[in-house]
Amino acid sequence: MNGWRLTGLLSLLVGAMTLYFMARHGWDVDGVRLAIRATARTSLVLFALAFTAGAMVELMPSDATRWQRRNRRYLGVSFAASHFIHLGVIVTLAVMDPAVFWKLTTVMNILLAGTAYLFIAAMTATSFDRPAAWLGPRKWRLLHLIGGWYIWISFAIAVGKRVPVDRFYWPMAALVLAIAVLRLIAMFQRGRRRITISAPRVPA
């Protein structure tokens, strides 16, 4: 499974999972909150696959990591679909029970998350050839670099604040930390290779 078929399949699976969890409790607040937690996890996994695609193939080259790198664009768009479904369920909670919604969030959280969604929208739009060509390679790389790390920070904050109160978030925290470490190691190794290549050779 590759390309846009992969994106379509993953998006359909996340959508079906969301409907299942919401219907499981009779379309009440508990079901909506369950769907929010489930889509947060699918979004994190898909983001991790897209965010580490280049690093994984550099550090651990294999058929699996080459597949991951080849489908980075489609995994990224799948992440966007999952996270916008996540946003839709959050809005559903706000409409169904505003008191619970405001108990679980703050205006600052909304502003930080809103900025992340702006990055996700911009990165998704420029995952298509024509908008990417309009933006240009240099600005495209800058957008995806800054946007990717901002989204990582938003996950780190969202997961980190829940770790002390719920051990179920420990694996998610470990995943958030691991993907940053992989990216940084790969960046460090690329930097060392550039220095080695550009260093002047001393004549024998």
What does this structure look like?
The chain is mainly alpha-helical and 204 residues long. The protein has one domain (3-190): Four Helix Bundle (Hemerythrin (Met), subunit A) (Up-down Bundle), CATH 1.20.120. The chain is built from 10 helices and no strands. It has helices spanning 3-24, 29-51, 53-59, 63-70, 72-96, 98-104, 107-125, 129-135, 137-160, 170-198. The protein is globular, with a radius of gyration of 19 Å. The termini are far apart.
Any descriptors?
single chain, 204 residues, mainly alpha, Four Helix Bundle (Hemerythrin (Met), subunit A), 84% helix, globular
Figure out the total of helices.
10
Going by helix content, strand content and strand pairing, the class is: mainly alpha
Q: Helix share of residues?
A: over 70%
Which radius of gyration do the C-alpha atoms yield? Answer: 19 Å
The oligomeric state of the chains shown is single chain
The H/E string reads HHHHHHHHHH
Strand content bin: under 5%
User: So what's the overall shape?
Assistant: globular
What value does the average pLDDT take? Answer: 90
Unreliable segments (pLDDT under 50, ≥5 consecutive)? Answer: none
Total tally of structural domains = 1
The strand count comes to 0
Distance between the termini: 53 Å
Q: Give the biggest sheet.
A: none
